[in-house]
Task: structure prediction
Amino acid sequence: MTATLIQPAMNAVTHSTEVPVHLPAGILGFESYTDWVLISVPGEEPFQWLQVVDNPRLAFVVVEPDAVTCNYYPDIGLQDVECIGLESPDDALLLNIVTVRTHGKSTVNLKGPIVLNRHTMTGKQVIPVNALGLDLQHPLPVGS
Result:
């Protein structure tokens, strides 16, 4: 997986929101980073930044899946559900990592969503039980 090393334009924006996120197992390839911040920047919706607290130059562009597809139903395994502390599907906040390409269409990873408990903002990157039927490089819709 390639990290998005594009710095959010935080100096130019005064009304962004930052929400602390804890990923005890990190993200695939970045397991040592457990403390993150989810940054929402006005005008960049539906995209957000998932940025490492201790290394602000390391950030991923993320998006909630309903902004890019209406047919996304990842089957999260029981062990992951228990680990994240989800009591109902409404407790889950799903984020998918966007691969930004300068020459070509950007894509979204649907095989490895980051699943957060929206009450605690603790979670993990999971491989859904039905990952074989999900796209690793789902194209972003035109206009995104």
Q: What stands out?
A: The chain has one domain: 16-139. Helices lie at 78-84.
